[in-house]
Specification:
Radius of gyration: 38 Å
Number of strands: 12
Structural class: alpha/beta
Order of helices and strands: HHHHHEEEHEHEHHEEEEHEHEEHHHHH
Number of helices: 16
Distance between the termini: 84 Å
Low-confidence stretches: 468-472
Shape: elongated
Helix content: 40-55%
Largest sheet: 7 strands, mixed
């Protein structure tokens, strides 16, 4: 703001000279209020405009004292030429810059440029602050939010920060103060000296004026870290849009930040399994996924299976071994939901937000409500519930198929005469899987079992089995 007021630099993005050669621009309001000298209409020479640019560069580089000396010389020259209006403008520039210098003044001496680096840490979060002192004035502050492993020491952090920060920095000062001391101090010092083409000193002060500067930077770092942690917590607490919509559409007392969904996979008469998936902030939280082998139910009784897996999971919740969800979805209609409610009632859980999601019309089944809740197909609430339900279905189906395939593979090898547990383990170890045994050549099988007759029997068995499967 001060620069735009004191120095006549254009703020437009016009291409100068005009791209059409003889085309012309018209000066804007900035020219008329004396904030710009009108380079768009060639009202100022390129050389004179560049002088203004160089003054601003000096100011931003922290060379304020040098700039003030230059401006005082200009003011005296203008006064001697009786150009009092322009001399007064330069005088105002000097006063404003000196006022800023006074506010920025941190140290008494102006001889040395310095960077003051400090860190503040909270577990894996790290805030770094670099205070830039030029000619004794604080001209800038750079803030960084970094991540650090628990195993990282203060020296590790300092090493990494020095290398990353000064690799891209265009200005390397003569002195650098830091609150953490790197292990590679000599290497870093030599590297910085080479990059600067001049002496660079590193200091890690413990007392005195230098320590006061470190403490000032550390205070900034702690404030920055506090703000970062606050923002992080706010993001974590913020409800995703679909979660907020689901709470509204289902009239839930508590926002469903955590959602679990139960499903049964019962593709045949054998190996029925259950699954439970867990979503956190509308995203899969796979750490909490669970598979269930059905233990107490025989036959195809989906309701009894649902009662069993819900009971088993929430028994673990009550013992503190699993997480209580904000919302529980049962994959199925009224029958599956009632089975789950019976299991919860037996455990004394009566305050869980729970519903069923019926597949046929994608209707929501609510406890104690005869009428089902229908949401628009495009509703973010319904899409979230479908995503959770489909994930539970996928998880259950995948587990069921794995169990079935393992059982099928085992029975195939067991069907071959002359193959016991040891021989089976030998084949699987050498060829990787039953498919590997199936696709192996006669020579490969003979190499593994070292029995020509048995190798021929295995090879013949799979050829016959596969031909029968294709015929069916």
């Amino acid at each position: 703001k001060m620069i735009s007021r004191l120095f006549k630099l254009r703020t437009c993005k016009l291409r100068i000279p005009h791209p059409k050669g003889k085309g012309r621009y018209k000066v804007c309001l900035q020219y008329h209020i004396k904030r710009c000298d009108g380079p768009c209409e060639n009202l100022v020479s390129k050389e004179e405009y560049d002088k203004e640019v160089q003054k601003v560069i000096k100011l931003l580089q922290g060379k304020s004292a040098s700039l003030v000396d230059q401006l005082q010389d200009e003011m005296k020259l203008l006064a001697s030429l009786q150009n009092y209006e322009e001399a007064a403008r330069v005088r105002d520039q000097i006063r404003s810059i000196e006022g800023i210098m006074q506010k920025q003044k941190v140290v008494a001496d102006h001889a040395v440029d310095r960077d003051i680096i400090a860190f503040a840490r909270s577990t894996g979060d790290l805030a770094a602050v670099v205070l830039q002192l030029r000619e004794g004035l604080l001209i800038g502050r750079q803030n960084f939010h970094l991540r650090a492993d628990k195993a990282d020491t203060e020296s590790d952090i300092a090493d990494s920060f020095f290398k990353q920060y000064y690799l891209s920095s265009t200005m390397i000062p003569e002195e650098i103060y830091c609150s953490f001391k790197p292990d590679d101090e000599k290497v870093i010092k030599s590297w910085l000296t080479e990059r600067r083409n001049g002496r660079v000193e590193l200091f890690f002060p413990q007392k005195g004026e230098k320590m006061r500067l470190i403490e000032m930077a550390e205070a900034n770092a702690r404030l920055l870290l506090g703000e970062l942690m606050k923002q992080k917590q706010e993001r974590a607490d913020k409800l995703p849009g679909a979660v907020a919509m689901l709470q509204k559409d289902m009239y839930l007392a508590k926002a469903p930040m955590t959602i679990c969904c139960f499903d049964i996979s019962n593709l045949g008469t054998t190996d029925p399994v259950g699954s439970m998936v867990f979503f956190k902030a509308a995203k899969p939280f796979k750490k909490n996924y669970r598979h269930f082998k059905i233990k107490t139910v025989s036959g195809q009784d989906d309701f009894a299976m649902m009662r069993e897996i819900v009971s088993r999971y929430f028994t673990r919740v009550l013992s503190g071994e699993a997480d209580m969800p904000d919302l529980c979805i049962i994959d199925g209609g009224r029958g599956q939901l009632n089975a789950a409610l019976e299991a919860l009632a037996e455990l004394g859980i009566d305050d869980l937000q729970i519903c069923g999601l019926a597949k046929r019309l994608e209707e929501i089944v609510l406890p104690g409500e005869k009428k089902m809740l229908s949401l628009p197909r495009t509703s973010p609430s319904l899409k979230l519930m479908q995503r959770v339900r489909d994930e539970a279905h996928r998880f259950a189906i995948t587990h069921h198929r794995n169990l079935r395939d393992k059982k099928t593979d085992k029975s195939l090898l067991d069907s071959i005469e002359g193959i016991g547990d040891k021989r089976k383990e030998q084949l699987l170890k050498a060829l990787g899987s039953v498919d590997g045994v199936r696709n192996a050549t006669l020579e490969e099988l003979n190499t593994v079992v070292r029995n020509k007759s048995l190798a021929e029997r295995i090879h013949s068995f799979f050829r016959t089995h596969d031909n029968l499967s294709e015929g069916q």
